[in-house]
Amino acid sequence: MPGPDTSPLTDLHPRLPSPVQEVTDARFTRNGIRLLLKRDDLIHPELTGNKWRKLAPNLTAAAGRTVATFGGAYSNHLRATAAAGRLLGLSTVGVVRGQELAGRPLNPSLARCAADGMRLHFVDRSTYRRKTEPDTLAAVLRASGAEDAYVVPEGGSNRLAVRGCQALGEELRGRADVVAVACGTGGTLAGVAAGLAPGQRALGVPVLKGGFLTADVQALQARAFGGPRGTWTLDERFHFGGYARTAPALDAFADDFEDRHGLPVERLYVAKLLYALVALAEEGAFPRGATVAAVVTGRPFG
Predict the structure, then answer these.
(1) What confidence score (pLDDT) does residue 243 get?
(2) Is 75 among the catalytic positions?
(3) Is CATH 3.40.50.1100 the classification given to domain 8-48+158-295?
(4) Active site residue: 75, 109, 144, 157, which one?
């Protein structure tokens, strides 16, 4: 089982391990499948799901320093980092993709970041793509006034974050045959797979298109554990056009799932995951008698 959480966020009284909820849904039961929801959205009112698990070890490592991180204009990760900064009294800097956004009224997501005390620094998209290059990173940090900051990568996925998400897999040992999670940068999947028991499989559903996550997950596991851990696969068919994109069919599906089960469904990650699982169940991708656990990584914003 996971060890004790020694992060400064423990003072915020997280609900760990997060609860597991069984739901009865005809689209699964008629195919002989049992569906569980791993309610990571209930860990904390403001720092939900994989954001908690990724940020907690990184904020411990930051040891009170300014935390600088990266994201797009609607980044859940930026909002979570800003909220953690407010709750813990830490200075935060958010480097935002899209210089053309500077000077415009902030959208609700970035307005929440600013209200939580995050200093926003906008960069052009070419610079943003090169943000992991040492010289570019150093220049961006200087320009944002965060030269000495502790840097958390986009999406929060690094070695410490993967180890934090390993606890999520450990909490589900023996509970399901397949543990499914929506993927942005791949850190949660890398950790979950490492935490599961032999015979269990992690399934990642990317919410971005591009087909790059396999190499990213492999690299994250190599940095976190020195090599591959656990069994995992990706199904890249359910991104609905890419990050922050939805479609009427996805919105209708999410509305229906909310009505059936009384669960608020976050659209950019969780809805795509649940939609994928329903489609896979109907395709016969899971053997009859299987138990599938879906990780609910967040709740709707606003």
Answers:
(1) 82
(2) yes
(3) yes
(4) 75
